[in-house]
Q: What sequence folds into this?
């Protein structure tokens, strides 16, 4: 099923839509927590702090959007309040593990250097996905005249992607070669996630 059609069906079902928003919030929060976990205690930059703060804010913002559908319907991130919980909860973890193993093998990194590099590449792949997913989601929200909106997130995610490219360019002149392998892995995880959403919907 095309992504636009899947999202349209999710939006048209209030219970599924609330769980979908909660799932997006969960994933944004997971990303923020991973960014914080990758920080070096002394050398963390303002840009990394900004990024973590904005991801946390996105998680909160998406939670607040749920109230436009049905207040109090998804108070936590309990499994029953998420859509495709198994795939949603392991998505970022699997990408992080793959990326860390790849960078350790290909670049010989370890410790804080590995955590920082993994942060760069994982975040790049996720921002690339967000730059695609959120606009499609917003187009369906607009088409269906839904009160939920993610326009502010779209603007910030585009900025995040530019920032990640800037940091990766400084990290390595060959960053695109390594990013391609990590983006390919993310794409596999995304396809499985979309299939799980489709199953949950039906």
A:
């Amino acid at each position: 099923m095309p992504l636009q059609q899947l999202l349209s069906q999710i939006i048209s079902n209030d219970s599924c839509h609330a769980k979908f928003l909660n799932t997006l919030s969960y994933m944004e929060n997971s990303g923020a927590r991973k960014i914080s976990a990758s920080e070096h205690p002394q050398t963390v930059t303002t840009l990394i702090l900004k990024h973590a703060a904005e991801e946390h804010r996105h998680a909160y913002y998406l939670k607040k959007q749920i109230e436009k559908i049905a207040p109090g319907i998804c108070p936590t991130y309990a499994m029953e309040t998420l859509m495709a919980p198994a795939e949603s909860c392991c998505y970022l973890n699997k990408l992080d593990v793959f990326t860390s193993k790849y960078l350790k093998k290909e670049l010989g990194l370890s410790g804080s250097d590995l955590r920082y590099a993994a942060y760069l590449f994982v975040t790049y792949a996720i921002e690339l996905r967000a730059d695609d997913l959120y606009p499609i989601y917003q187009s369906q929200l607009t088409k269906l005249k839904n009160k939920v909106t993610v326009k502010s997130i779209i603007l910030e995610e585009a900025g995040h992607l530019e920032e990640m490219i800037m940091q990766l360019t400084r990290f390595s002149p060959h960053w695109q070669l390594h990013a391609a392998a990590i983006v390919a892995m993310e794409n596999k995880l995304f396809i499985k996630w979309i299939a799980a959403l489709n199953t949950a919907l039906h």
User: Anything to note?
Assistant: The CA atoms of residues 19 and 80 lie 9 Å apart. DSSP finds seven helices and no strands in the chain.
